[in-house]
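Thread: "does anyone have the structure for this chain?"

Original post by V.I.:
We have the sequence but no experimental structure in hand. Need at least a predicted one for the grant figures.
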Amino acid sequence: MRFGVIAFVTAVMLGVFAVGPAFATGYQGDVDYWTKFEVTINNNQVTAFGGTSGGVPCGDGTQIDPVAFQLAAPVPVTNGKFQAAGTSKDDYNDTVQWSLSASVSVTRTISGTVTVSGPEPATHAKTCSRTFHVEAIIPPRNLVPKLTTNFVDATPPTANPVAPNVHFDYRHGVITHLSANAGTECDQSEFPATLYTTAYRLDPVQVNGGRFKVVADVLDDYSVVTHVIVAGRIKGDVARGTISSSRYWDVNGTIRHCTRHLNWVAHGANTSGSAGGAFYDVAPYRYGKPGAWHYYFAVKPYNCVNQVTAVRFTVGGRSRIVACNSTRKVGPLKPMHSYSISALAIRIRHGKAIGKRHLGSSFLYLPGEDAAWTPVGYIP
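Reply from O.Q.:
Generated one for you, tokens below.
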């Protein structure tokens, strides 16, 4: 029996997870929200990773202090998952075992656990063990947020405890160069972070009927993965919206959920934006059976406005017109490559495409066996 698999990106922007070429991709993140975790994947192999655990309590007031772990030899990524194990030394020079199990989603986020176990310090009376969460994303490019944009933050100082610092360019129905304060806080502790859509390869962001939303993961100043949602509405030369950020924090073995919610206002000038023509989702998709998969992008236009009835998608030299609120595939395409995706809003009248409006161009990675896939039905 043949079946398809897909993982949709739930977001309202173009090229939500645009990435670099398929070879030697580096990831950065954290081990239980306090130390760095780094991974390198080369095609279907994890060629390097390393991090440091937290303390491993032994239940009697003693603990194994944080232990460094790293990959000794490459391991394969099979159906989007990989595993590795090894040994390290603690502060008493005792041997500590570790094992790591993780998955790579089609959106190229690594998530999993590492378990560390070893003898109780000094007495060796028992074995102590603890499991830590690990997470990593493709880090941003080393770009400084644009200093001059046509929408600048104008949030009153009394609106929030901290400034949202929202700035962006809005032209031709899309947003680029959006930067915002994505930091979080727990009690009196601050965890600064910045979302810059250009650095995280999120440009351009779709704007439809004046509304937009950016859903993304960023690295804060401590290299901890922070989840961010920036939502807004543009009306003339005024934009308003919210920023919601969240991450976790290990406080003496207790995991705290740290959040921040900000309201923002930005004023614009000399904009040439339009209401846009449609939002759309683009997601990697494969169909067939093991050993004979065919790879595509699944596309779905929705929330079409201003008489737009369809969107023409062009990927890797292949084009397809997709009616609003329907899902179709574009391809077949070669997996484990990044593709340029162009979207053109159109109106079909008497069988002809008229009223074309460019929605934007971006890049998206099409994984192969290097990612985990979720089974779904056939997409025509």
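V.I.: this helps a lot. The radius of gyration is 23 Å.
O.Q.: and Residues 151-268 form one domain.
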